[in-house]
Amino acid sequence: MSLFTVQAFSQQSIPEYCLENDVVHRYLTEVQYDPNDYSYSLIRNYCYDYPWNWKEEGGVRLDIPKPVSLKFTKELDKARTLYVSETEDFADAWTYSVGQNIDTIDVYNLIPGRTYLWKAEYDDNGVITVAESGVFKTTGTLRMLKIDNIFNVRDMGGWIGLGGHPMKYGKIIRGSRLNVNNSSTKIITEDGIKELRKVGIKAELDMRNRSNAANASYSFLGSDIPIYNVENAYNSRIATFANAPQSIQGIKKLIEWLKAGKPVYLHCSVGADRTGTVAYLVGALCGMSEDALSKEFELTSFSGDKIENERDRPNPERLIRQRDYTGRLDPNDNNESYKFAKMVDKIKTYPGNTLQEKVYYHLKTGVNGESIPEKDLDWLIKELVDYVMVKSITTDGGATLSLEPGQEQALNAVVVPENATENTLTYTSLNPEIAVVSDSGVITAVRGGSATIEVKAGEFVKTITVNVPKVESVVPDSVVYDGMVYKVTGTNLISNGSFEYGGYFTNWINALNTPMSSSEFDVVMYGNGDSCYIQSKYDGGEQSVKSIRTQWKIKKSKTYVFGYRVKNSTDLKTVENKYLATSLTYYRQKVSAGADDFVWGVPQEPELVFEYPSYDGNWTEIQYVFTNTEGYEYCQVLFSHLSQNGNNTCFDNFYLVEVEAVDTSVKRITDNSSKGIYDLYGRRLSQPSNGIILIDGKKYLNR
Questions:
Q1: 478-661, what's its fold?
Q2: Which pLDDT value is given to residue 447?
């Protein structure tokens, strides 16, 4: 086995180094920001207060990473060359010169979450000899960089984006300026230039005006590195810059260079406001959470940036997420443009269900003619996150479906594009009492109403509205009661009196527009689950003592039929149930609804209570006809003590409608024979019709 393979070292012997300095590591791991609350910031618990001149007053610089401190076990009086690489062939290895008698070297700017191999070589009279070698791992997620004389430098990689995929390291590095404003004097040292080039920077995006960059035609990092300045961006900061064409212009240039294989150094003066805004938009586009975006923004506060001394020292730069943060005063806009929360507020006004969708919409729609094509936005996401967004979900039937109870509709959903990273479809009904949806995307209408179905793939959600007509009670055309024939002339006064297809008591509205309580009854499904009825609850005793009642408003002198169907849950024959009654009642006080029952006013004694029905395990049609001659206000129905030894009473198809008596006398038979089928007007029928008819001289009610 080769000396330079990870397998050559046991897992126990591989040391680990966290690249995040201790304070930053605690901030990232201990803080969890609420995306709905921008009234606070926790950065001050970790980032020390002013003064920022850390070099002069013993402060600690917190914007650089911890090093990987490699200690050599063999003492040599010869200079060595250290090679550090992710690959076993040491291709593209980083090299470091180690002087003689040096036993430790600090290695910076590595990538978190990687395994590195290293070897130290020396020249022994023209023979290259490996003195020693090893393997180590890097941990953490944030990649801060130590660039000589430059501040606030960090990689945008490592943050979690769309679909839980981490953003790629080495694509965009953000930081502070490389030269003094409006001067060709460099701030960055030659060692700093070497280090930025070593991490792969091949283009410079400067959010300052060209005059700030001394009108340079190429980067201060080298003549082979192009530079681009975004003009007129200086006074467009954070809240206003997010909605400015300059921020979109900067992102377009990022895309152009990344497409050309050029990792970008993104900066303005301090790398705070304008740089922070572009970084926020790119991060949000890639799906970073609001918690992560807040932290990424506030990390600038760890820089202790010495160049801030050029500004107003009593009001140093400080990046704070909280809404009422005042920070550095700005007489031009009352400091609003410096508020991070103001930028978030603005972005959240854009169309979209998620922050990512809102930023995507903003960038593709653009500002003042500056916009980014969708194909470029999709490319940037895949380049930075290796994630293909779901753009849409197609379904059969359109966005609104009309289905009858029990009817099915297969959605046949398809994710667009087909190569979307997260193309697994999930289906959810937000109103399963109206319509349900299977795991395969088949909608089944249950009962009357409107339901919302969500079809989701990744972060994309499509909603479908399902409208189902209500199934009302079946009301007969005519009724025979106590030897009399009545013709139905009105409409059902009981709303949703049928429990067919999953109706519920809570939808049964009485005369006072109060839903009747459902605490005493269960909805019982039968058949294939496409239909149901209500059944009294059994409390486990010999006989249930629960009760429920409701009422409907009726008119004086009108004749009504009250009907329903009833059965037992078993085949037990019920000859008399004295607690099942319908009556006419007048109330002096308004009725109010309680939790489980109705609290009644002080009524007169009912003048009329209908006979007790007899029923068994089969449905029995019950009808009562009455005339409200006394002018009662309500027809009351009382259900109580309906469960005994596990035998429960079941109900369905309630109706209360006006009727009028029919003259059933036959005035004239036009046919010479009394044999045959006739209606009540003596007209011969070829086949029975609904209602009262005469067959061979006898009266029948045909339904």
A1: Jelly Rolls (2.60.120)
A2: 78
Secondary structure of residue 179 in the 3-state scheme: strand
| Topology at the third CATH level for domain 6-11+68-107+110-139 | Immunoglobulin-like (2.60.40)
- Enclosing H/E stretch for 293: helix 290-298
The residues that bridge with 620 in the sheet, in sequence order, are 566
Question: CB neighbours of 403 closer than 8 A, spacing ≥ 6?
Answer: 409, 435, 443, 445, 466, 467, 468
- How far apart are the C-alpha atoms of 609 and 603, rounded to whole Å? 14
* 578 has pLDDT over 60: no
Residue recorded with tokens 């193309």: 423
Q: What's the CA angle centered on 458, arms 452 and 460, to 5 degrees?
A: 50
- Per the omega criterion (within 30 degrees of 0), is the bond before 51 cis? yes
* CATH 2.60.120.260 domain span(s) along the chain: 478-661
Q: Boundaries of CATH 2.60.40.10 in the chain? A: 6-11+68-107+110-139
Q: Are 638 and 617 in contact (CB under 8 A)?
A: no
Tell me how far apart the alpha carbons of residues 450 and 156 are, in angstroms, rounded to a whole number: 46
CATH number, domain 31-62+145-385, options 3.40.50.720, 3.90.190.10, 3.40.50.300, 3.30.565.10: 3.90.190.10
Three-state SS for 65? coil
Which positions ≥6 away from 169 have C-beta within 8 Å?
111, 112, 143, 155, 157, 158
Q: pLDDT (tens digit, 9 = 90+) per residue, 80-127?
A: 899 999 999 998 899 999 988 888 999 999 999 999 999 999 888 888
* 586 alpha-carbon distance from chain centroid: 52
Determine whether 327 is exposed, middle or buried from the number of CB atoms within 10 Å of its CB (0-12, 13-18, 19+): middle
- Length of the chain equals 703
Tell me the C-alpha distance between 70 and 49, whole Å: 33
Residue 376 and residue 664: Cα distance in Å, rounded?
82
392-468 domain in CATH 2.60.40.1080? Answer: yes
Q: For residue 692, which phi and psi values (nearest 5 degrees)?
A: -85, 125
Query: Per-residue pLDDT tens for 44-72?
Result: 888 765 444 444 445 567 889 999 999 98
Characterize the bridge pairing of strands 460-468 and 400-402.
parallel
Residue type, 701: L
**Which of 34-48, 175-189, 375-389, 431-445 shows the lowest per-residue confidence on average (mean pLDDT)?**
34-48
Task: Single out the residue of 282, 274, 296, 222 nearest to residue 252, CA to CA.
Answer: 282
E strand or H helix that includes residue 679: none
CA-to-CA separations, 219 to 153, 155, 177, 215, 528, in angstroms, rounded: 17, 19, 11, 10, 74
- Dist. CA 251–CA 259, nearest whole Å: 12
Residues of the chain with CATH 2.60.40.1080: 392-468
Across 151-248, the runs of DSSP E, i.e. the strands, are 154-155, 172-175, 203-206, 227-229
Mean pLDDT is highest, among 91-105, 249-263, 551-565, for 249-263
Phi, psi of 529 (to 5 degrees): 85, 5
| Whole-number pLDDT of residue 103 | 87
Q: Average the pLDDT over each of 84-98, 135-149, 158-172, 635-649 and give the range with the smallest value.
A: 635-649
**Euclidean distance between the first and final Cα of the chain, in Å?**
92
* Stretch(es) of the chain classified as CATH 3.90.190.10: 31-62+145-385
Query: One-letter amino acid identity for 447?
Result: R
The residues with which 115 forms a beta bridge, in sequence order, are 137
Cis amide linkage into residue 417, ω under 30° from 0: yes
Query: Per-residue b/e over 231-245, b at no fewer than 16 CB within 10 Å?
Result: eebbebbbbbbbbbb
